[in-house]
Amino acid sequence: MSLDPLSRLGDLAAGSLDAIASALATASPLGQGSHRIAVTGLQRAGKTVFVTSFVHALLHAKDAPVEAFPFFPWRERLRTVELLSIPGLPPFPYRERLADLLADPPRWPEPTEGLSGVRVRLRLSPPARLDRRLFSPQTLHIDLVDYPGEWLLDLPMLSLDYDEWSLQMEEMAASGRRAALSEAWRAEAAKLDPAAAADDFALARVGGAYVEYLKRCRAAGLHFLQPGRFMAGGAPLGSLFFPLSRARGARSGTAGAALARRYEAYRRVVRRFYAQVFGRLRRQVVLVDLLTALQQGQESFADLALATRTVVEAFESLKHPLARLLPVGRLDRLSLVATKADHITSGQHNNLVGLLRDMLGEPFVRANARQAGLLAVASVRATSQVTRLWRDEPLQFLRGVPSGRSEVVEVRPGEIPGQIPGRDDWSGFVFNIRGFEPPRLEAPFERPLPHINLDKVLQSLIA
Ligand SMILES: Nc1nc2c(ncn2[C@@H]2O[C@H](COP(=O)(O)OP(=O)(O)O)[C@@H](O)[C@H]2O)c(=O)[nH]1
Ligand SMILES: [Mg+2]
């Protein structure tokens, strides 16, 4: 890989994206059915846990009691099931991640970077109405592809030139909590003369400060971070460019012109991703961790809402194949999932879905009612529920081991609002939403992991 920033970008586009694109373009062998399900979401939304638990359920649902994974359409006809990799894609490390969950004590799996995939092959007897002597078993592939939602945050950049993007980003960086987080970067940027001759070291210094700012935002629970690829997946693209509206009109050879050129090169990568990868993923699951943002308060929540809407707009754009910016693409099914539903009591799940609906916006939900389903899901359920009497009233409590602790406690996570609270109403809500250690499950655990509604995601994608 070259050190020159522009050719590093070129490598990224030509190398990994093309490889991924051609892997996705390859149809499955003749006569085999296949469902390719892409799973996305911002960092820590729960993708790795979701894919691990989903694959595990596909591998073991057949012999488990029906209630362990109620929706499983192949139960009666399934002969064998196998785990494979998807040719050409980095493998999703299912076995390692499952081993983390089944360890003693169990741990949440290590994060994965970039895009990866795993294939489950089901061999099915012919349907009962066909004569089994005449028809051979059918093969069905279920592919799961995990990719960072941050890659979808870049869509708006396709319709903004460098000036416009810079202005938007600078304005954002100067407001709310971001103002303090961006101070060091803004101070560095102020020293840069966009009309001076381009100097890679000077640009890298300010660029480094910009990435530091994005990282600080993330640590503070903010999610709308552009460019998304600076913060997620494989190659560290960190110091390529940054917003600088003062660069407007800079002549060629100057620092300002270099920034604009790098921005354009980056946009070509983004466009390529949409054209070659995103447009090929026709069944997608978008995971959103609303609960953590809710606990972090109004600004975090508003920021997650902005990021989530941006992600979802990427899906909207797929419905307009003639849209100037994107190639032909189509979306068959979209499952929108509020994750970690085991962090609240079951009586609150409807409100959690209401909150997700409100975050996506009623117009989006209505326009996509045919393909899209909204669900509250726990891929791996870490809590159980108990009812306790409090002043003669039955109240629901969660039982589980809080993160970093080892003893079981009972908590009340609080009432989840069924829609986004108004700016002034936040103080009226008291949440006690916290992380839990994963449940203790004994290896080998040869049935679906405890979950909430994981099978309904399958149903919403393939029914
Ligand atoms: N209680 C609970 N915690 C979860 C669940 N899914 C994810 N988490 C938590 O969220 C963290 C991030 O999940 P992960 O799947 O790594 O997110 P990713 O970055 O989107 O791949 C995990 O380490 C867990 O602490 C779930 O179903 N239940
Ligand atoms: Mg992950």
Could you explain the architecture of this structure?
This protein is of the alpha/beta class and 463 residues long. 36% of the residues lie in helices and 15% in strands. The chain has 2 domains: 1-162 and 263-463, no CATH class; 163-262. Strands 2-3-4-1-5-6-7 form a 7-stranded mixed β-sheet, sandwiched between helices. Strands 8-9-10 form a 3-stranded antiparallel β-sheet, with no helix packed on it. The model has no long low-confidence stretch (mean pLDDT 89).
Bin the strand percentage: 15-25%
Strand order of the largest sheet: 2-3-4-1-5-6-7
* First-to-last CA distance: 44 Å
User: What's the helical proportion of residues?
Assistant: 25-40%
Helix-strand string:
HEHEHEEHHHHHEHHEHHEEEEH
The major pleated sheet works out as: 7 strands, mixed
Q: Residue-averaged pLDDT, rounded? A: 89
Radius of gyration: 24 Å
Point out poorly predicted stretches: none
Ligand inventory reads: guanosine-5'-diphosphate, magnesium ion
Oligomeric state of this protein: single chain
What is the number of E strands?
10
The secondary structure category is alpha/beta
Count of the domains: 2
Shape: globular
Number of helices: 13
Summarize the entry for a quick read.
With 463 residues, the chain is of the alpha/beta class. It has helices at residues 5-25, 47-60, 94-102, 162-173, 178-181, 183-190, 200-219, 255-277, 290-296, 298-318, 349-360, 362-367, 454-462; strands spanning 33-41, 78-84, 116-124, 138-148, 283-288, 333-338, 372-376, 384-390, 393-400, 409-411.
